[in-house]
């Protein structure tokens, strides 16, 4: 992933004028007529034959005087239209302006000015926690530290027509914030084998996770309850699969469940983040991911958004998580409200991008719906971890799919690559051969809903997926004591590339079998001709078991 190499496309951002934008900037030298509303009349004058020699301005002055008013000049560029104002110090004047004007031979039309009610088209919601949703609209001065979504909503892109499914421990779809957008046709309960993914109360009061994720995506707006989802016009389904023993076949069923209804699969879970587990989808889960991108969403491919994992404090690395390092998934990591990598966030070469979540103490967490079963209120300010980042990304993908339903699963990855923004200068940014900055901490950068949707609108689909596989490279040498490093080179010839039909390099997938007494002491680095380095097998805090790294 870190070594993408494709020709540069130019993105033209389509800028449409916001509806409250002044359409015409008046550059007229005319004085703007003003006077107090209620004391002003607009008139249209008739140029009579008797006005020979005079001007319209003079006629306006004359009409005004006759009605006990004064002329404040022509209204804008409207020829013959004048604003007349009541003279303040003639309070006891018996003349009624409306009557005088109505009877005047040179007045074609007149109207007393009133106050027009016009609201700026800014997004306001009456959901009580909306003002606390800093990840949607940051009111702090830190520039750009939100997902920049309001401009997208103002253009009526809210995820309408798109369904996001939360694969998790259930979704409380009866909740006020979930019910209006709930999609029962996309839902299923694999733990109880029935169509209803309602979470079950548990001894640890813990099965709120899926409902919180669902709220981040599609919490209903303006219902005076809790918060607002990123894609509040989308529909949200739930697949309950994490509340009980999970098998490979259950995972496979989950990944393809109702895949012509569900467009985006939001998965905020993975293997243990203990810094020693190397695991991922097993054969059926793997096959289901691949089948999903081929057959799901009418062939455009299901979008699988996965969280990179919360094992940062154990030095866990998401390349050891087979869901995160699959080419079929959008791997999303977290940054805190200051745009920094939080202590729990993992790093890896397969990180595609990051979005907001909780940080250390004193930093805010994600505000979203919550289940209302057991001791909870249906609303929380405490959703945390990369678990909270992935659903925000899934919601942003829903916005993109409303703008362009025909984007393929690979288009989505490309657009993220193009539009994510680099901001944290402390991260380990490296520029790849195609000119994109990538960091193992932040992937290609911070997701920005405005940029994603605008790019989606004009995106040209990427060519068909082709792959090119090396022969098995065997290395019989042991790693020498000095320089403590073994380098394996694979030279790809131009002829071989031509034969494969490959034009651009999108993903590199490496499978290795290495025998070593301490797995955690081993580091595997992919080095590209451009000089880009990807740490695909990190030295590990806990990766010290004598298990061959696959
Ligand atoms: C939400 O409702 C309020 C009235 O309660 C209204 O003023 C506002 O425009 C609504 N917002 C949206 C985005 O529909
Ligand atoms: C955020 O969105 C607004 C439109 O609402 C756009 O004008 C602005 O450039 C965007 N900012 C960034 C940093 O992308
Ligand atoms: C790969 O190419 C380089 C430079 O052309 C050459 O030095 C090297 O021997 C080649 N390696 C293999 C394994 O063919």
From TrEMBL:
Active site: 168, 209, 387
GO biological process: protein processing
GO molecular function ontology, one term from the record: serine-type endopeptidase activity
Protein name: P/Homo B domain-containing protein
Organism: Electrophorus electricus (Electric eel)
Signal peptide: 1-22
GO cellular component: Golgi membrane; trans-Golgi network
Transmembrane segments: none
InterPro entries reported for this sequence: Galactose-bd-like_sf (IPR008979), Kexin/furin (IPR034182), P_dom (IPR002884), Peptidase_S8/S53_dom (IPR000209), Peptidase_S8/S53_dom_sf (IPR036852), Peptidase_S8_His-AS (IPR022398), Peptidase_S8_Ser-AS (IPR023828), Peptidase_S8_subtilisin-rel (IPR015500)
Domain P/Homo B: 461-550
SUPFAM superfamilies xrefs: Galactose-binding domain-like, Protease propeptides/inhibitors, Subtilisin-like
């Amino acid at each position: 992933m870190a070594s993408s190499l494709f020709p540069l496309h130019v993105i033209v951002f389509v800028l449409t004028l916001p509806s409250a934008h002044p359409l015409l900037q008046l550059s007229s030298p005319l004085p703007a007529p003003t006077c107090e509303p209620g004391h002003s009349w607009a008139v249209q004058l008739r140029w009579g034959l008797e006005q020979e020699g005079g001007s319209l301005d003079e006629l306006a002055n004359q009409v005004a005087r006759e009605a006990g008013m004064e002329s404040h000049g022509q209204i804008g560029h409207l020829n013959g239209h004048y604003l007349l104002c009541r003279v303040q110090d003639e309070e006891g004047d018996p003349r009624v302006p409306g009557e005088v004007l109505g009877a005047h031979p040179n007045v074609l039309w007149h109207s007393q000015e009133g106050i027009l009610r016009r609201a700026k088209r800014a997004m306001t919601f009456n959901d009580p926690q909306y003002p606390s949703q800093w990840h949607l609209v940051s009111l702090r001065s830190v520039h750009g530290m939100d997902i920049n979504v309001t401009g997208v909503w103002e253009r009526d892109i809210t995820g309408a027509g798109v369904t996001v499914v939360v694969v998790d421990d259930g979704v409380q779809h009866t909740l006020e914030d979930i019910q209006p957008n709930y999609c029962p046709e996309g839902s299923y309960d694999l733990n109880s084998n029935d169509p209803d993914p309602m979470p079950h109360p548990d001894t640890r009061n813990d099965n709120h996770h899926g409902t919180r994720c669902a709220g981040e995506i599609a919490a209903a707006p303006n219902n005076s309850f809790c918060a607002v989802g990123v894609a509040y016009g989308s529909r949200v389904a739930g697949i309950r699969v994490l509340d009980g023993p999970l098998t490979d076949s259950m995972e496979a069923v989950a990944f393809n469940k109702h895949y012509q209804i569900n467009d985006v699969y939001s998965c905020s879970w993975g293997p243990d983040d203990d810094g020693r587990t190397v695991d991922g989808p097993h054969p059926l889960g793997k096959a289901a991911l691949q089948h999903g991108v081929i057959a799901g969403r009418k062939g455009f491919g299901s979008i699988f958004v996965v969280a990179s994992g919360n094992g940062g404090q154990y030095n866990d690395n998401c390349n050891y998580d087979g869901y995160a390092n699959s080419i079929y998934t959008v791997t999303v990591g977290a940054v805190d409200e200051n745009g920094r990598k939080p202590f729990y966030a993992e790093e890896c070469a397969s990180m595609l991008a990051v979005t907001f979540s909780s940080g250390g103490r004193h930093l805010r967490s994600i505000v979203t719906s919550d289940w209302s079963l057991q001791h909870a209120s249906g609303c929380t300010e405490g959703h945390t971890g990369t678990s909270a980042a992935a659903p925000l990304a899934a919601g942003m993908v829903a916005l993109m799919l409303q703008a362009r339903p025909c984007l393929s699963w690979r288009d989505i990855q490309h657009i993220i690559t193009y539009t994510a923004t680099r901001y944290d200068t402390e991260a380990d940014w490296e520029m790849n051969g195609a000119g994109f900055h990538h960091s193992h901490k932040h992937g290609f950068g911070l997701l920005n809903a405005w940029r994603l949707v605008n790019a989606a609108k004009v995106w040209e689909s990427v060519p068909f997926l082709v792959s090119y596989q090396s022969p098995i490279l065997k290395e019989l040498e042991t790693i020498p004591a000095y320089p403590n490093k073994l380098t394996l080179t694979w030279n790809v010839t131009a002829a071989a590339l031509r034969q494969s039909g490959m034009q651009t390099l999108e993903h590199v997938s490496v499978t290795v079998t290495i025998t070593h007494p301490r797995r955690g002491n081993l580091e595997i680095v992919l080095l590209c001709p451009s000089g880009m380095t990807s740490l695909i097998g990190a030295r590990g805090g806990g990766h010290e078991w004598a298990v061959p790294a696959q």
